[in-house]
Every structure is written in structure tokens, then in C-alpha cells.
Specification:
The complex is a heterodimer of chains A (220) and B (99). Helices cover 12% and strands 45% of the residues of chain A. Chain A is built from four helices and twelve strands; from the N terminus they run αββββββααββββββα. In chain B, helix 2 runs antiparallel to helix 4 and helix 3 runs antiparallel to helix 4. The longest helix of chain B has 29 residues. The chains are: A mainly beta (220), B mainly alpha (99). At the A-B interface, strand 11 of A face strand 1 of B.
Chain lengths: 220, 99
């Protein structure tokens, strides 16, 4: 479960540069297949949970069906008023809880590899520096023109492919490699989704409990 | 003029085709109604198989009623079928509620 949490936290950072915040994309996103090193496949959905003024909510829903039936939702609210996007609020929900819990700031970035500032605080030109050119990927039986990016920090290297066809999330494929177990996975686009009902209602969120913290990796 | 018209038609066709190809598959969750799923499960392979067995047994009895053993077997199958359908329905409703 902690591995999943770290993965989701890293994912939101990766997908941020490609996000489109247009109001028409509210409650829309993408469904992916997440494949771990041992070939365990899981469903992963990333979508816009809401747009309120200068804030946009991005929710991720993870469901591992074949092995442990693990489910987890995370929702982050990002201030899009300036060029430097900033996470203002974060929530998580597991089936063990009736209400979502509000993440404290130290839980926003718990990934030991690629860091929040690598994407979140990077301006467009520095993100472009990571571009490796345009390629066409065959994913979900379709040829999708993408831009390839690579990013490394420490012992984690991620290669990811972004396409405007996959808006609002934009992510088509991501390959993460590293020495740590949780750094090895592949994410592949399945299909777009729209008119989603977010799993997390932040209005009923409670403060983090000790039990809630037990589901999350310790912040560094 | 005819050539121009032809070129225009051709370019329109190409642009329309390109537009259609640019659309990635999309699932609209506002159109996933669990009641539709319920009706759909009635035609699954397993359900059809069960109905075929039922028809066969009715045919074997010559339409004059089933033997006690056949009735017992049929009732057991029916009970099992209903339980499986209930489980499948619960699972489908759960899955359809997820993004």
C-alpha cells in the first residue's frame, strides 16, 4: 500500500506539465494500465476532479484486482494562478475509512527519486530541456504521435510520452526504472474517460489520524 | 471547375478521416447505467448454457413433467445460477461505480 502511495505521489508530478486546465475537461481524464516489475497489472485512473477559481483538483484512483484487491484514491488541489503550479491541498481515501483524510504538507512529496520540484516548479523551458523529440507510439491498438521526455534524479529514471490527443492528462506511456523496488513500473494509456464522479469529497475530509498515517510512507 | 470540386471533396474527405482518427477511445461514465449491465448479464454465455440445459431436460421429459431426480437437479442448478447471478451483479455494479 505504501508503495502505491509513493507511486501516486510521483505520478501527479509527472502528469502536471501536460495537464490542461480548460473547464471543459472537468471530470475527464485517462484510464491506464499500471504494470509492476513482477508483471502484476492494475488499473489506474487520473482525472480532473474539479475546477474552482484558480484551483484545479486532480484525482487518482488505483485498483489492483487480481492479487490483493487494493484500492486507493488520492486527490490534490493545485493553484494554477501562476506559472509555477503549487499543490495547496491533498487528500487520500482507502476502503478502510468512511471519510477521506486531509494530507499534511510533508506527505505531498514522499518519493525518494524524482522530486516535486523537478516538475512542479520547473518552468516550461526547463521541462522542454528534457524533451527527446517526437515519436509515434502504438498503444491500445492505436498509433499516437507523442513527445518523448526523460528525467532522472538519484537512482530513478523516468521516460514518458505526452500527446495532446490524450488531454487533459496527456500521458500516453511512462517507464520508470531504478534500484528501488517502487521505482520499477510501466504505465500505459488505455482510453479516455469523462463524466467521472470523484471518489473523494474534500468537504467531508477529516484530519489525518494515526491509523491513516499507517497507510502512508513516512515523509523524509 | 470539376477538377477543383474533386480536389475540394478529396481534401474534405482526408481532413474528416484525419479528424476521426485523432479521436482516442473514450468511456463516458454518465452513460454507464448499472440497470443496463443487469440486463446485459442475462445473455452471458453461462446463462445461455443454463437455459440450454433446462430446455434439454424439458425435452427429455417429453413435456409431461420432470422426474423427481431431474426436478431436484434443476432446482439445485437454479439456486446455484441465482447465487452466481447475484454475485456477478454485485461485482458489476461495484465495478461500474468506479472510474
Amino acid at each position: 500500500m505504501k508503495q502505491i502511495n509513493m507511486l501516486l505521489a510521483a505520478l501527479i508530478l509527472i502528469s502536471l506539465p501536460a495537464l490542461s486546465f480548460n473547464q471543459s475537461y472537468d471530470k475527464s481524464g485517462s484510464k491506464f494500465t499500471l504494470i509492476f516489475k513482477d508483471n502484476i497489472k492494475s488499473d489506474l485512473s487520473i482525472y480532473i476532479a474539479g475546477i474552482e477559481g484558480n484551483m484545479v483538483g486532480v484525482e487518482m484512483f488505483f485498483h489492483e484486482k487480481s492479487f490483493s484487491n487494493t484500492r486507493m484514491s488520492q486527490q490534490f488541489w493545485i493553484d494554477k494562478s501562476s506559472s509555477k503550479l503549487e499543490i495547496k491541498e491533498g487528500y487520500f481515501l482507502v476502503p478502510e475509512f468512511k471519510s477521506p483524510q486531509k494530507l499534511t504538507k510533508e506527505y505531498f512529496n514522499v518519493n525518494s527519486g524524482v522530486k516535486i520540484e523537478d516538475f512542479l516548479f520547473a518552468d516550461e523551458s526547463s521541462v522542454k530541456e528534457n524533451s527527446k523529440g517526437k515519436v509515434t507510439l502504438t498503444v491500445a491498438g492505436m498509433d499516437i504521435p507523442c513527445e518523448k521526455f526523460e528525467k532522472s534524479r538519484g537512482k530513478q529514471k523516468i521516460t514518458y510520452y505526452i500527446s495532446p490527443m490524450a488531454k487533459p492528462i496527456g500521458l500516453v506511456k511512462l517507464i520508470s526504472e531504478g534500484e528501488e523496488e517502487q521505482h520499477n513500473y510501466v504505465i500505459e494509456f488505455n482510453h479516455l474517460i469523462k463524466n467521472i464522479s470523484p471518489k473523494i469529497d474534500r468537504k467531508i475530509a477529516t484530519e489525518m489520524t494515526e491509523e491513516g498515517k499507517s497507510f502512508l510512507p513516512k515523509p523524509k | 471547375m470539376k477538377i477543383l470540386s474533386l480536389i475540394f471533396s478529396l481534401s474534405l474527405f482526408i481532413s474528416l478521416k484525419t479528424y476521426a482518427q485523432d479521436q482516442l477511445p473514450t468511456v463516458d461514465y454518465s452513460k454507464t447505467d448499472p440497470s443496463q449491465v443487469q440486463r446485459g448479464t442475462a445473455s452471458t454465455g453461462q446463462s445461455s448454457e443454463f437455459l440450454q440445459q433446462l430446455n434439454q431436460m424439458q425435452g427429455q421429459s417429453g413435456g409431461n413433467g420432470l422426474s423427481a431426480a431431474d426436478q431436484k437437479q434443476l432446482l439445485q442448478q437454479l439456486k446455484q445460477f441465482k447465487e452466481q447471478e447475484k454475485e456477478r451483479q454485485e461485482l458489476l455494479e461495484e465495478l461500474m461505480a468506479e472510474p
